[in-house]
Amino acid sequence: MKAPIYVYYELDNFYQNHRRYIKSRSDKQLRHGLQYTDSSCSPIERSNGLPVVPCGLIAWSLFNDTYDFTRGSMGLMVDRKNISWRSDREHKYGKDVYPFNFQNGSLIGGGKLDPDIPLSNQEDLIVWMRAAALPQFRKLYGVIEEDIQADETITMHITNNYNTYSFGGKKSLVLTTSTWLGGKNDFLGYAYLITGSSSIFLCILFALIHVKIPRPHGDAAYL
């Protein structure tokens, strides 16, 4: 595998597109801070009588498994920076907005955030907050900037923190590379083939109908 090698975590049977879940956030708060805590974050709006930053179910359920890799006796570095969209970091998350009262309630949903790091630098959170459209999805964890040769043994150390068992979900770890055409995506390939084939079939069908039953001209009754 030639560098860069992208490390993804994949979740199955996790509906980030559920209406109540996807609406449980405050984009104004992510950008400007405490003064914008509002009812849109319900039910994770306040904890112990104090507002929560970032509020809402999406942030509360932050994925928090960790992965480390070794090749022989040497560690294989995973770069965790620049894994989120630059536009998100610069325009959607405040550089002077810090986590406050986060995951301090009696029920912990997922990962915790460093209260000394602004939200614009919390890239795990930024990646997670971009909700997926399907119940099976991948999100970028990091990038390995070294080649992996054939027949090499790579040892993966996984810290299993995230609870997917309670809702019958599955977790996977994916290592993949990318070409100038992008990464591998079977769904898009099948979708393009089906859409293109259907379009060709319909074009031929309408052409045959037009030849056999041409549209009449000059009769206002057909308008």
Automatic annotation (TrEMBL):
Domain of life, source organism:
Eukaryota
- Where would you find the membrane-spanning parts of this chain? 187-209
Which is one Gene Ontology cellular component term of this protein?
Answer: endoplasmic reticulum
Alphabetically sorted, this entry's keywords are: Membrane, Transmembrane, Transmembrane helix
Query: Carries keyword Transcription?
Result: no
InterPro entries noted in UniProt = CDC50/LEM3_fam
Subcellular location(s): the record lists: Membrane
Q: Which Pfam family, giving just one, matches this sequence?
A: CDC50
- Primary location class: membrane
Q: Which family does it belong to?
A: Belongs to the CDC50/LEM3 family.
Q: What is this protein called?
A: ALA-interacting subunit
Which organism is the protein's source?
Aegilops tauschii subsp. strangulata
